[in-house]
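Field: sequence (string)
Field: structure_tokens (string)

Example rows 1 and 2, in order.
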Amino acid sequence: MTTERIQHIRKADRDSLWFLGDNVQIIFDASHTEGKLLLAWQHMAPGATPPLHEHAVEDEMFFLLEGSITYWSGDREFTAGPGDAVLLPVGVPHTLQADPEAGAKFLLLTSPTGFEDFLRAVSEPATYDGPQRGWQMDEETARKLGAAAEQAKITIIAPPGTRP
């Protein structure tokens, strides 16, 4: 039996990033899982919503810890709360929105890995836990988002607030 891949990641040792104003902490990435799985913790600000987009490489899975998120994926709309799990498969346009009052905390899994490179390319180091106070999309972030999405084979279909 081989044990060299056993990992223990303490909270203080995670990469903590601000991604589009949300706090994302990468727990396990390609370097830990031989490219099979990304596991991250995310705290979305109240009402936060990404652009309508589609992944060409990875499935996304969400496990809600606190708050709620409304999802629009393909022709479906639903709201998930604590303890719920959501799978958004590769190739299906989708977006989501955190509860406008409470935001949301969840575990994000993607398979295969690579999504962490996208997150890191668009993010900046977080200096505190939680969403970035006062965050607004600016031209530099929009440029980084577009370039990173192209590299990651993520198609941005429409701006935040647009539904499939």
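Row 2 begins here:
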Amino acid sequence: MAGFRLVEMGKYIVVFVTCASKKEAREITKRLLDERLVACANIIDGVRSFFWWKGKIDKAKESLIVAKTARKNFIKIQKRVKGLHSYEVPEIIALPIEAAEPDYLKWIDGSTGR
């Protein structure tokens, strides 16, 4: 991969959080950025979700936060999101970044103050 490098396993992650509204997603995103827990967050509005809830299949129109950060921030992100989120069981999941442009990774480090 020209211009990219493999990343130290687990050092960087992408965090996904579904929210009940665009407003909730913006509020959570702003807090995560203000606290430098994430370097960047995208909000994707109009996500249609289908899921099991309380013994039956349910559905919802949601907004999805896609945030890039260092793995060591995950526990703080999880606590912050749970404290702000309207859902009884919010989705807060992380996937590892396996390869990335080196300058982007430096930017994540600098932006999260770590």
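free_text_note (row 2): The CA atoms of residues 45 and 103 lie 28 Å apart.
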